[in-house]
Structure formats: C-alpha cells, structure tokens
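anyone seen this seq b4? input:
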Amino acid sequence: MEASEIEGLIKAGFSEPVVQVKTDDNTHFAALVVAAEFDGVRSLARHQLVYKTLGTLVGNEIHALSIQALTPEEWAARSAGTTDS
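predicted toks r here
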C-alpha cells in the first residue's frame, strides 16, 4: 500500500484536514493528521478516529502506523516554534 492511498483515506474521514503520511517500506507508516475534529478530544480517542478511517487495513496491509494527531491550533503552535534558517 502506498502512502498516498493512506493519505486519501484519512483525508476522506475528516473535514479539511492536513495529512502527511511517510513510509520507507509500504507496510510501516508515520502519519501527521491535523483536524478540527480533534479539538477537546484526548490523544487515544484521536488515534481511534484516524484508525476508523482506515478500517481493516490496519493489521493487514498496514503493519504499523505511528500517528501524530493535532488540532489546527496545536499545529500552528508547533510550526511557530520552528525557524527556516
């Protein structure tokens, strides 16, 4: 499975998300998901929302998935802390 396919599935499950998925071997993935739906939601529940978008792929085509699930405000705060020097 390609990272772009996973990005598409995750994007379809949220309203206007920012999604970045990376992989080195097409079975182990790292996903950054920024979505307003995460506001007021605990970390575990955020991950469950992301897993829900992928259905039965997790554990089958997707052997491992690392998730960073952030609200737009959290993402902006993190981005503000970086510099392009």
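The first helix runs from residue 3 to 12. The chain has a mean pLDDT of 93. kinda curious what u guys think
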